[in-house]
Amino acid sequence: MKLGEGVEVAVHCAAVMVGLEKHSTLPAAALAEFHGVSASYLVKHLKALVADGILDSVPGPAGGYRLARPPERITLLDIVLAVEGRKPAFRCTDIRRRGPGAPDATAYVKPCGINAAMLRAEHAYRQALAATRLSDIVAEFQSEADPRSVARGCAFVASCQRKQP
Amino acid sequence: MKLGEGVEVAVHCAAVMVGLEKHSTLPAAALAEFHGVSASYLVKHLKALVADGILDSVPGPAGGYRLARPPERITLLDIVLAVEGRKPAFRCTDIRRRGPGAPDATAYVKPCGINAAMLRAEHAYRQALAATRLSDIVAEFQSEADPRSVARGCAFVASCQRKQP
After folding, report:
1. Contact A90/B3, CB-based, under 8 Å?
2. Which of A25, B13, B71, B143 sits 20 to 30 Å CA-CA off B107?
3. Distances in Å between the alpha carbon of B18 and those of A41, A142, B161?
4. Looking at the partner chain, which of A3, A106, A144 has a beta carbon nearest the beta carbon of B1?
């Protein structure tokens, strides 16, 4: 099983934006430099977060990105689904109906039990992701992380945020 | 998030093998035909199940595959890890340490909170997979699936199994 790499940088970017002052934004180029990734790679993922209503994109030369709603209302599940899509990890191809001698469609009205079991496990995964809010991530970071790391994040936001008119 | 397609056919093959008589095996070619997949594709996944001790491979012209232990002791997690590998779906690249101005390694002794939260969710996923045994899958299939589908599976095993000397 594999999650795309975009999830990591997307969660980190959203966490950084929690520190923005009201109406301020962060430009993609600054976010990319801070996280050591290319801007074009990052913009793809930021756009996915905008499309799912997690971020707002403010256009124009002083524009940038900011959270579209309070961090208490953004979960890890919201971010993972925005970046990775909403399809389940287990993709049932209805293999039970292939091969010679399979009965006709009337024998397969009920869902395949293997698919159902895999989806139950995926539901547990999604529930756990939904139980962690962006605000939890940031509160834990501020109280648990090394003070130098916290200070670096604060300094980055303070120096790179753009106040919108 | 995506699971490889091999998981589906691996679980279906293991479920079919529950119906084997003692000491009997099923050849890969027959399993491939029954599931409508190529034999070379299937053998790759059967070998992964053998490597993890879920299946036994019996060599020779009358050889084939069978479960290496009772289906009560094989879980969906065992099969998923055998086919997909044991690495977590979320691969932390320690992005917090990249970019200019990051403090030295002494600031990153504790694990990243984002990685920890992602791994907690993955633990819930794995626990749910571990709670479903191959015997549960087969018992549910026998009691819930369309009788034509159950009869097809039984007939396949009866006609294709090879008794080992």
Report:
1. yes
2. A25
3. 47, 52, 12
4. A3
Overall number of domains in chain B:
1
Q: Torsion-angle region of residue A23: left (phi > 0), alpha (psi -120 to 50) or beta? A: left
Q: What percent of chain B has pLDDT over 70?
A: 100
In a domain, B14, yes or no: yes
Statement: residue A33 has pLDDT above 90 = yes
Distance (Å) of CA B15 to CA A7, B134, B153, B155 = 34, 6, 10, 14
| Domain membership of residue B16 as a residue range | 5-84+133-163
ipTM of the complex: 0.94
Residues in chain A with CB shorter than 8 Å from the CB of B123 are: 128
CA pair distance A8, B90, nearest whole angstrom? 8
| pLDDT tens per residue, range B7-41 | 999 999 999 999 999 989 999 999 999 999 999 99
* Domain containing residue A73: CATH number: 1.10.10.10
> How many A/B residue pairs have CB atoms within 8 Å?
175
Whole-model pTM?
0.94
A24: distance to nearest CA of chain B, Å? 22
Query: What tokens were used for B23?
Result: 């000491």
pLDDT value at A118 more than 80:
yes
Is B105 at the interface with chain A, CB within 8 A? no
Distance CA B87, CA B82 (A): 11
Which residue's entry shows tokens 């969906």? B76
Per the DSSP assignment, residues forming a β-bridge with A26 are A65
And the tokens for B117? Answer: 């939260």
Q: Is B142 part of a structural domain of the chain?
A: yes
**Helix spans in B52-112 (H):** 76-84
Closest CA of chain B from A137, distance in Å:
7
Domain membership of residue B59 (yes or no) is: yes
